[in-house]
Amino acid sequence: MSFSPVTGKAPTALHTGAEGLRHGLVDIPTFDGVVSAYYAAPADQEHPALVLVIQEIFGLHEHIQDVCRRFAREGYMAVAVELYQRQGDASQYSDMQALIKDIVAKVPDEQVLADLDASVEWAASQGADATRLGVTGFCWGGRLTWMYAAHQPQCKAAVAWYGKLTAGHGPLQVSNPIDVAPQLHAPVLGLYGAKDASIPMEDVARMQAALKPGSPAAQASRFVVYPESGHAFYADYRPSFNPEDAQDAWGQALGWFKRYLA
Q1: Which one of 109, 196, 236, 245 is the catalytic residue?
Q2: Partner of 140 for a Cys bridge, out of 37, 57, 170, 244, CB 3.0 to 4.6 A?
Q3: Which of 139, 155, 185, 236 is catalytic?
Q4: Quick check: is 196 catalytic?
Q5: pTM for the whole thing?
Q6: Residue 231 annotated among the catalytic residues of the structure
Q7: Which superfamily, per CATH, for 21-261?
């Protein structure tokens, strides 16, 4: 496969149409101005439940927007914020290490959490039912999914896709999912690959142990680990894509949100 991991597509890349949806790029007011975001929602449904979609390390690109449309087709309003906007444009990078050094490592968790809170307020103003709030994220966003589930008391459910559990991407990430595990407000479903070189199974075991003595939401959290998958197995535009496991994990995610956001 020949493509840029940031801007290109592999032959397997899926496209979800927007027929019957309201969707598009918007500017969302936040603590220091506005941030760009993409949203999608059923055009004919009033007050749908809300799912925040947190981007991969590559930013708010087409795959993440497509995931928003997938959730909208399931009856949710989905909102994904461009969480690197103040630090730079991830689409200009094809080298992962340069992207991490120049942009990702400079994004503090506090900024991300504030922008996600702002997106909830915006979505509520657009008709979403923010009392039924879920969050999901992939890779970089998977880690932030755990963090948001511990940050926002309104959050009712979370699905973290192969997010780091014991580390961040730079010195501005001063705590990590394993540190906040006991304080979760929302039960988290963790979807991970056993062959993920960046997240050893020892970290999953440590996280499971940290969840056990925690809040009711922490105790209700669980992991699904796919033995034959590595990192980014849901990313259909990358060589890491595992169609069978991706399909199963998507069903697991939808079931989790249906259970807690009904």
Answers
A1: 196
A2: 57
A3: 139
A4: yes
A5: 0.95
A6: yes
A7: Alpha/Beta hydrolase fold, catalytic domain (3.40.50.1820)
